[in-house]
Amino acid sequence: MEVFGKIKMLGETKTVGTGGFLKRELVVTTEEQYPQHILVEFVQDKCDLLDKVQEGNSVKVSINLRGREWVDPQGVTKYFNQIQGWRIEKLESSEPVAQPVKDSIKEGATVGKDDDSLPF
What we know:
The protein has a single domain (about 1-90), classed as CATH 2.40.50.140. About 0% of the residues lie in helices and about 45% in strands. It has strands spanning about 1-10, 15, 20-30, 35-45, 60-70, 75-90. Strands 1, 2, 3, 4, 5 and 6 form a 6-stranded antiparallel beta sheet that branches.
């Protein structure tokens, strides 16, 4: 699955627990009629992928949906979902690039005296 949008928030890499588990969060705001703010987690060696992007970049994030079941001490079963990123690509800006305007008459060129055509 993929999520497209602009990076709204780019978190720092954090160590979770005593085992040295690495986690880094990213919020992508989708660019649709009703924008959504999607929290994506990158873990372990995938945290380094976020070093090449910054807030405001348009990106495509490849994700996996993860779900797990947990039974609390009272015996109540709860379910949790996680969106986990495994690849991120910067997208080209959709803004048009201004092209330089070239004169139709070269510098130093003259229009002939006998030429009845207009120079434009």
